[in-house]
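Continuing the batch. This is chain 6 of the set; chains 1 through 5 are on the previous pages. Same settings as before, nothing changed between runs. Recording input and output for traceability.
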Amino acid sequence: MPIWASAGLWGLLGASSLVLGAATAFLLNMPRSVTAGIMSFGCGVLISAVAYDLLEDGFQEGGIWPIVAGAMAGSLVYTVADWLVSRNGGQNRKRSGDQQKKQGEGGGLAIAIGSLLDGIPESVVLGVGLLAGNGVSIAMLAAIFLSNFPEGLSSAAGMKRAGRSKLYVFGLWLVIAVLSALSSLAGAALLGGAAPQVLATVNAVAAGALLTMLVNTMIPEAVEADHNASGLLAVAGLLVAFSLSNLGAG
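Output for chain 6:
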């Protein structure tokens, strides 16, 4: 199977937990504190993936300057895009409480665009990771899968409270999952044969975008609903992801 096709399938797998999270929000009436706790765990997982699987590995391949430049560029681009989405009603897309009710129906498109904006960097990373010839990174795949689940869960819970239909919610996440798979496919197809410094820079761009996304959208939901346990659960998530990254090492 071509690398780009394999990348697309792995990207689809990583994004599928968005749909699973949304299904859980509709099947189970979970307390907001539980939803926020799962979100905190997902934050820790992504922090580990950003620090060790993207930045540290990229530094080993390309040196410090591609990492610094790429991460700052990714953060800046995400910040501007997130500001535009938030201005048009997508600022509460990951909130599980009543915040989405205040946006009305006009915020639906902004929520969809914002959710896609959040998913593209991590999907591209999966595709780029296959270009090293070592197969998919289990740690990165696990990080994406485990962090996407609470994203889908929390956002769908908020949409449910806002009165959005099941067709809208599941249609949204299915489209985003498919587009995430295409992003992973594109990452592998367009960067085949690229120099290590280029790949390191692309990973750093994704890392900067993901870390900014965490601070802007995931951490506020996690801390607001369950402040006391959020830090502990984030550390647990980080350690689980870190352990996966180092399986077999030493």
